[in-house]
Amino acid sequence: MFVIIGWVLALACIFGVYIVHGGNMGVILKALPFEFTTIFGSAFGAFLANNQMKVTKKTLAGLGQCFKGSKFSKARYMELLALMYDILQKARKEGLMSIEKDVEDPHNSAIFQKYPVVGNDHHVVEFITDYLRMMVSGNLNAHEIESLMDSEIETHHQEEHAAVAAIGRLAGGLPAFGIVAAVLGVVNTMGSVGQPPAVLGGMIGSALVGTFLGILLAYGFVEPLGGLLEQKVEDAGKEFQCIKTTLLASMQGYAPQVAIEFGRKVLFSDDRPTFSELEQHVKKK
């Protein structure tokens, strides 16, 4: 929602001031379809040539996420920590082997299905169950599991940032393609030097629209989407950090209620539930 509001505000300020100062929108509107096709079409072609198909798909999916609100909220984190508490509490009371069925088949686990917000998130469930499985096996110590967690989180971070980098490269190329469109317009104008000054002025104005449009698309539209997607990637990474910290605290011998407090402290302050909020939520569940 705020993406659309930001775009509308930017366009209103740019073109509003232009019109107030006596600008002729007819020149821009006349050249806009041709310049847009030249700039955005060539930039998108370069984008396809510059990225593997898996990165292209991830980028397009990420752009779709930019128009949706963030799923990482205080309520989601309270669900996640309550889920972690229940699992660790069961393991502490009944032994690690008691959670083996929950780990092997989380979709039919009463604990995971008790928290559908995170219990039905494939990536979160897989991350939790993979390391709980290692804890149940008892073959790895906390330092070894922490190293594995760090490697997996870093891999996830790199995968998600590939889309952010692709959008950044696209934004960086748009002004250059705007210049290409402007140069072509100038070349076309130079081939019509025998035309009256009014006609030549219109052709030069149309050519300059290309430079304007390339810069506007880059810094007014594409680059902000890249920045927003990067923030969403950081939010997703923070959730994995929360799970990692909670599990490691449990492996080091801390009680479940203390372990989830370790995980709570990792979260960003805007989305972090207070100690009392989390305690009440856990008791309620």
From TrEMBL:
Cytoplasm as UniProt keyword: no
Transmembrane residue ranges: 32-49, 166-187, 199-222
Location(s), subcellular: Cell inner membrane
Pfam family, one: MotA_N
Entry-linked InterPro entries: Flag_MotA_CS (IPR000540), Flagellar_motor_stator_MotA (IPR022522), MotA-like (IPR047055), MotA_ExbB_proton_chnl (IPR002898), MotA_N (IPR046786)
The keyword Magnesium is assigned to this record: no
Family: Belongs to the MotA family.
Name the record gives this protein: Flagellar motor stator protein MotA
Organism encoding this protein: Pseudaquabacterium inlustre
